[in-house]
Amino acid sequence: MEEINLKELCQYFMTKSYIAIIAIIICLLVGNIYLFCFQTPLYKSTTSLVLVNEERSTASITQNDINLNNNLVSTYSEIIKSRNVLSQVVKELGLNESVENLSHCVSVSSVTNTQIIKVDVSRESKEEAKLIANEIAKVFSKEVRSIYRIQNISVVDKAQLAKSPYNINIIKQNAAYAAIGMIVGMVIIFIIFYFDTSIKDAKTVEDKLGLTVLGVVPKVGDKNGSKK
Questions:
Q1: Which strands form 106-110's sheet, in the order they lie side by side?
Q2: What confidence tens digit (pLDDT) does each residue in 88-122 have?
Q3: pTM, whole model, 2 decimals?
């Protein structure tokens, strides 16, 4: 494999920097066309639930209650996305979609070292996201009472209307497009440099061929101003 002179490579990058600039402009153009014409804005609403027995006062909660609730967090997370719960949500809100499609819009997570469960709902409509998140909390609470015969679910924060789409960030996305364009441009320049075997100056002849240059014929302009 031919050795690459880093100094020569850097100089080559400088002379071909316009290729990187063109690549950046193209990536920004294509990225923004997708951003403003094709990317669907999605809104996210979140409701937070905490596992605590409402029939007991805070002073009477024992360590056993806390341990039980901690063990139920993962189980409850699965129940929230169960077909039984989501089908009731679809029915109550009159949604015109399948339970499978709705489940793809719902994500459940637990806050580490706490008994708090967060339910996130992503939709194209911010109003729908809020309604579905709050309805899931309502239906889930009823389902827990039906299954476990206990009421240990309380709503910490109700879902609110999202102010802006969570999947669109013009500044960050354009920075990413520019970075991709820069990388693509640099790769193209490197490929051109690697496969370019032309002789560009006298020093290249001496370095590559080991020959002594006796003279250099400069480019001169003709009567029309073109160089030969």
A1: 106-110, 116-123, 43-51, 153-157
A2: 999 999 999 999 999 999 999 888 777 889 999 99
A3: 0.70
